[in-house]
Amino acid sequence: MARDRRDTYYWRAKEEGYRSRAAFKLLQINEKFSVIKEGDTVVDLGAAPGGWSEVAKKLSGGRVIGVDLQRISPIEGVETIKGDITSDATIKKIFELVGEGGVDVVICDAAPNLSGNWSYDHARSIDLSRSALGCAIKILKPGGHFVVKVFQGDMFKGFLEEARTDFVHTKSFSPVASRSQSAEIYIIAKKFLNVPVKKGEELDVEITGKGSTGDGVFHIQEFVVFVKGASEGDKVRVKVKDVKPNFAFADVIARY
């Protein structure tokens, strides 16, 4: 309580009618990265008490769905689901509300209950963030955006790299509204890649064509992968080095 009384964002939240000071974190994230735009459908994971859902509704004016194991007090214009974000039943409920096309943005400001053991709390934070990422991958439209809170620590870099395999642009960011003593940081992941390959993946393939620059080409379904230094008819093992929404690039690591 004493800390709150000295906290500028605590008082601003009260004055401006937000449920929590966390509202300003999302406002600052959106100001810098334009994650939520007008008309977007947004899902807020771990939404209770609802501060981020309030802001998402204000920013998008569109459909906002808050998901949490706890009950969320009603927010005008926001639909809520009481459920586990790792549950298929919860995913089904989301699709029942938004349709099979998916959602534009997934946000998550959830944190585990802290034990005081930093290594344990960091690991639980990564596990929670990974669950949010897994949910986002299931419900995002191609090109959609994802924001998630993580505690910094030795597992953070690995999780950031994991998120990078599914999005075109991924960065970490600390909003000014985060408390100075907090170890929280946010991953901002933009342009979801709903494609059949991931960066770093290794594949055994046969080159079936040639691109305009002379690189070899193979297809996975209708998705095109360009392979530097390969020719039509080559049977090779490749490693995917870069992925775009409509094509990818790979290098040869072995020939057969």
TrEMBL record:
<feature type="active site" description="Proton acceptor">
    <location>
        <position position="149"/>
    </location>
</feature>
<dbReference type="GO" id="GO:0005737">
    <property type="term" value="C:cytoplasm"/>
</dbReference>
<keyword id="KW-0949">S-adenosyl-L-methionine</keyword>
<keyword id="KW-0489">Methyltransferase</keyword>
<dbReference type="Pfam" id="PF01728">
    <property type="entry name" value="FtsJ"/>
</dbReference>
<comment type="similarity">
    <text>Belongs to the class I-like SAM-binding methyltransferase superfamily. RNA methyltransferase RlmE family.</text>
</comment>
<dbReference type="InterPro" id="IPR015507">
    <property type="entry name" value="rRNA-MeTfrase_E"/>
</dbReference>
<comment type="function">
    <text>Specifically methylates the uridine in position 2552 of 23S rRNA at the 2'-O position of the ribose in the fully assembled 50S ribosomal subunit.</text>
</comment>
<dbReference type="InterPro" id="IPR029063">
    <property type="entry name" value="SAM-dependent_MTases_sf"/>
</dbReference>
<feature type="binding site">
    <location>
        <position position="50"/>
    </location>
    <ligand>
        <name>S-adenosyl-L-methionine</name>
    </ligand>
</feature>
<keyword id="KW-0698">rRNA processing</keyword>
<keyword id="KW-0963">Cytoplasm</keyword>
<feature type="binding site">
    <location>
        <position position="109"/>
    </location>
    <ligand>
        <name>S-adenosyl-L-methionine</name>
    </ligand>
</feature>
<dbReference type="Pfam" id="PF01938">
    <property type="entry name" value="TRAM"/>
</dbReference>
<feature type="binding site">
    <location>
        <position position="68"/>
    </location>
    <ligand>
        <name>S-adenosyl-L-methionine</name>
    </ligand>
</feature>
<dbReference type="GO" id="GO:0008650">
    <property type="term" value="F:rRNA (uridine-2'-O-)-methyltransferase activity"/>
</dbReference>
<dbReference type="InterPro" id="IPR002792">
    <property type="entry name" value="TRAM_dom"/>
</dbReference>
<feature type="binding site">
    <location>
        <position position="84"/>
    </location>
    <ligand>
        <name>S-adenosyl-L-methionine</name>
    </ligand>
</feature>
<dbReference type="InterPro" id="IPR050082">
    <property type="entry name" value="RNA_methyltr_RlmE"/>
</dbReference>
<dbReference type="InterPro" id="IPR012340">
    <property type="entry name" value="NA-bd_OB-fold"/>
</dbReference>
<feature type="domain" description="TRAM">
    <location>
        <begin position="196"/>
        <end position="254"/>
    </location>
</feature>
<feature type="binding site">
    <location>
        <position position="52"/>
    </location>
    <ligand>
        <name>S-adenosyl-L-methionine</name>
    </ligand>
</feature>
<keyword id="KW-0808">Transferase</keyword>
<protein>
    <recommendedName>
        <fullName>Ribosomal RNA large subunit methyltransferase E</fullName>
        <ecNumber>2.1.1.166</ecNumber>
    </recommendedName>
</protein>
<dbReference type="InterPro" id="IPR002877">
    <property type="entry name" value="RNA_MeTrfase_FtsJ_dom"/>
</dbReference>
